[in-house]
Design a protein that fits this description.
Helix content is 45%, strand content 14%. The chain contains 18 helices and 14 strands. The protein has a six-stranded parallel sheet with strand order 3-2-1-4-5-6, sandwiched between helices. A six-stranded parallel sheet has the order 11-10-9-12-13-14. The structure holds nicotinamide-adenine-dinucleotide (NAD).
Length: 434
């Protein structure tokens, strides 16, 4: 089987490399020429641990290629994984323009049977539109199937997740499509869940919304903890030990971000609204998450009173550690709010600074990027930890105390021990803890 990957962004590049690693013949294509040029040379355009090594390995092995030519890639493939973006529109719904565009191109190049696999996160019922679009624009009487195979990788551990999936969801409506996908994922045969297409599409939105709900839930409890003697990490531990609840995604902080959770929660709200289902539960999940920005700013104000002309060091800009992805990162809203208050910011992230610069350009003295965390802390009136990169866990706090103008630390991810930090004479606030 020749596999074509349309869209070699985070998901597409990892999928291309992962499927090649499983031994398949894979060609990746993208409308952004630079991504294809880089990938062809063994360079990953994103930071993702382990990705570049596997990319190089499979290029050398000869079963992974990248091609600028979308038409040619479609024509030569038996299976097409559609991995293009499905961004959020103003009203919260998913923008399906790219998926529709790719469906038309597939139709125009339908030279033999093809299995078209939705890998992008799409609203339930999308497959009916993909099918209709291909039928509308195809020229001859060529057969095709549409299937859904949602992606569950986590940025920062995407390669690991691809190689060790909890489950492979395969939504199909023909045996032919099922057999092809089961063959592709033979290595994970014991973890394949076959469903109808609507179910597979919904599983993805449901999974992300449920995880987002866990995060908002624990953040809501953190607010309660801050007004009582309860302590959020022990509350989370006590809850998580219950197997029915589980301990993951119960970490209080400045909220979830990234290219998936905020958009997928809102897309599911819109899907429900359109189908006449009351989606208040998820509306609250979104609201609780958005409230985190004001809450963290309140903590800074509690320490400094007025933020105007204060120099605030922001540590961690990526939406989570081990990635350079800044899409919907809480840091962006926080920095914009700080600048809105008239504060100056010194910004540091081990990987994501270049990406953030495109959104918040360097503009001294208001916006300064530094090469180390300590450099960002120098002369700062307060520090705000937004992303819990490992290197912050071993930050030299003694030194930080020396070089900051005011040793104030707002720990938005509960990285440090309150007792230890305070022993150094640093004024400290975290989330849901005294
Ligand atoms: P991305 O923006 O990194 O990648 C999308 C790629 O598609 C881009 O490189 C873009 O240039 C390309 N593209 C757009 N139109 C194209 C066209 N007509 N032909 C060829 N290429 C085209 O996005 P992503 O993070 O990889 O997400 C892709 C989809 O997967 C989204 O639906 C997202 O919700 C979903 N998803 C993302 C993640 C994640 O962690 N990033 C995880 C699971 C699912």
């Amino acid at each position: 089987m020749q596999i074509g990957i349309i869209g070699t962004g985070y998901v597409g590049l990892v999928t291309a490399v992962g499927l090649a690693e499983l031994g398949h013949e894979v060609t990746g294509t993208d409308i952004v020429a630079d991504k294809i040029d880089k990938a062809s040379q063994g360079i990953a355009h994103i930071y993702e641990p382990g990705l570049e090594d596997l990319l190089k390995k499979n290029l050398q092995r000869g079963n992974l290629r990248f091609d600028h030519d979308l038409d040619k890639t479609i024509q030569s493939s038996d299976v097409l994984f559609v991995c293009v973006s499905t961004p959020q529109r103003e009203d919260g719904s998913a923008d399906m323009t790219y998926v529709e565009g790719v469906s038309r191109r597939i139709a125009e190049n339908l030279n033999k049977y093809k299995l078209v696999v939705e890998k992008s996160t799409v609203p339930v019922r999308t497959s009916t539109w993909v099918k209709k679009t291909i039928d509308l624009y195809k020229k001859g009487d060529v057969e095709f199937d549409v299937a859904s195979n949602p992606e569950f990788l986590r940025e920062g551990s995407a390669i690991h997740d691809f190689m060790h999936p909890d489950r492979i969801v395969v939504g199909v409506e023909t045996e032919r499509a099922r057999d092809m996908l089961v063959e592709i994922y033979q290595a994970y045969e014991d973890r394949i869940l076959v469903t109808n297409i609507d179910t597979a599409e919904l599983i993805k939105h449901a999974s992300n919304s449920f995880l987002a709900m866990k995060i908002s839930f624990i953040n809501l409890l953190a607010d309660l903890c801050e007004r009582t003697e309860a302590e959020i990490e022990s509350v989370a531990r006590g809850m998580g030990l219950d197997e029915r609840i589980g301990s993951q995604f119960l970490k209080a902080g400045v909220g979830y971000g990234g290219s998936c959770f905020p958009k997928d929660v809102r897309a599911l709200i819109k899907i429900g609204e359109d189908l006449g289902v009351n989606m208040d539960l998820l509306r609250d999940v979104d609201k609780i998450n958005l409230d985190r920005i004001a809450i963290v700013l309140e903590k800074l104000k509690k320490a400094l009173w007025i933020l105007k002309d204060k120099k605030i060091a922001v540590l961690g800009l990526a939406f989570k550690p081990e990635t350079d992805d800044i899409r919907n990162a809480p840091s962006i809203a926080i920095i914009q709010a700080l600048l809105g208050e008239g504060a100056c910011v010194t910004l540091y992230d081990p990987q994501a600074a270049e990406n953030i610069k495109a959104v918040i350009p360097e503009n001294p003295p208001s916006v300064v990027y530094t090469r180390t965390a300590l450099e960002a802390l120098k002369g700062a009136n307060a520090a705000l930890l937004v992303t819990e990169w490992d290197e912050f866990k071993t930050l030299d706090l003694k030194k930080a105390h020396e070089i900051m103008d005011n040793p104030i630390l707002i720990d938005g991810r509960n990285v440090f021990s309150p007792k230890k930090v305070r022993e150094l004479g640093i004024e400290y606030a975290s989330v849901g803890r005294k």
